[in-house]
């Protein structure tokens, strides 16, 4: 993979689920109790290293308000991964996850990784259990992780492990492509050799 390799991650979910805070924690290592409301779509980048190769991760932060929903759909295109957030202390945000999953599956290609993220696990009063969220994610054939932007719990892992999965997947595709090309080249050489006219024997 080249040094220009980049992955596009888009974060979606209802208002107040901590999308901006999660990105800020990941890119700056900081948490702000008062975070400005995202209007429309914003994005930042972060360089990471996987197997000593430099990759750039684009993190797209989207507004959770309904009036920005149609705008958000436009930014699904070209995404390598979609992180669908809900607040584990607010069931209403979990109830809206299905809508975001539907959008993610409709507006991205089949190779795009979908990750359900239960954020704000630092809040003890949970309304959505880990077991319920895991079962829901399994039934929708997507991954599930829990994070806390405030404490920094699993934030690095959520993004890094997804990038690593995509990186390894890209490597596998490249290796398979190289093997196929080599196989076709060898077949062409053999075919060319077989089709060459054979010299007849005998005296002049």
List the helices and strands and how they pair.
Layout: E1 6-13, H1 19-28, E2 41-50, E3 53-62, H2 69-74, E4 81-87, H3 91-95, H4 97-107, E5 113-119, H5 130-139, E6 143-146, H6 155-195
Parallel strand pairs: 1-3, 1-4, 4-5, 5-6
Antiparallel strand pairs: 2-3
Quick structural gist:
Keywords: GTP-binding, Lipoprotein, Nucleotide-binding. This is Ras and ef-hand domain-containing protein. The protein is an alpha/beta fold and 204 residues long.
Describe this structure in words.
By secondary structure, the protein is α/β, with parallel strands linked by helices. It has a single domain, classed as Rossmann fold, CATH 3.40.50.300. The chain is 41% helix and 23% strand. It has a 6-stranded mixed β-sheet, sandwiched between helices. β5, α5 and β6 form a beta-alpha-beta unit. The longest helix is centred in the C-terminal third of the chain and has 41 residues. It starts with 5 loop residues before the first strand and ends in a 9-residue tail after the last helix. Pfam families: Ras.
Keywords:
204 residues, alpha/beta, Rossmann fold, 6 strands, globular
């Amino acid at each position: 993979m080249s040094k220009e390799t980049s992955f596009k991650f888009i974060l979606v979910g209802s208002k107040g689920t901590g999308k901006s805070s999660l990105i800020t924690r990941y890119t700056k290592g900081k948490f702000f109790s008062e975070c400005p409301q995202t209007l429309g779509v914003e994005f930042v980048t972060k360089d990471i290293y996987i197997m000593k190769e430099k990759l750039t991760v684009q993190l797209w932060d989207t507004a959770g308000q309904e009036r920005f929903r149609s705008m958000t759909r436009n930014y699904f295109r070209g995404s390598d991964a979609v992180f669908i957030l809900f607040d584990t202390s607010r069931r209403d945000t979990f109830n809206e996850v299905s809508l975001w999953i539907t959008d993610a599956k409709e507006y991205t290609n089949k190779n795009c990784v979908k990750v359900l993220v239960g954020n704000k696990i630092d809040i003890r009063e949970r309304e959505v259990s880990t077991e319920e969220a895991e079962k829901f994610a399994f039934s929708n054939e997507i991954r599930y992780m829990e994070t806390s932007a405030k404490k920094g719990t699993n934030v690095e892992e959520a993004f890094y492990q997804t990038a690593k999965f995509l990186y390894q997947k890209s490597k596998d595709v490249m290796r398979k492509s190289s093997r196929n090309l080599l196989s076709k080249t060898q077949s062409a050489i053999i075919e060319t050799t077989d089709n060459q006219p054979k010299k007849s024997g005998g005296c002049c």
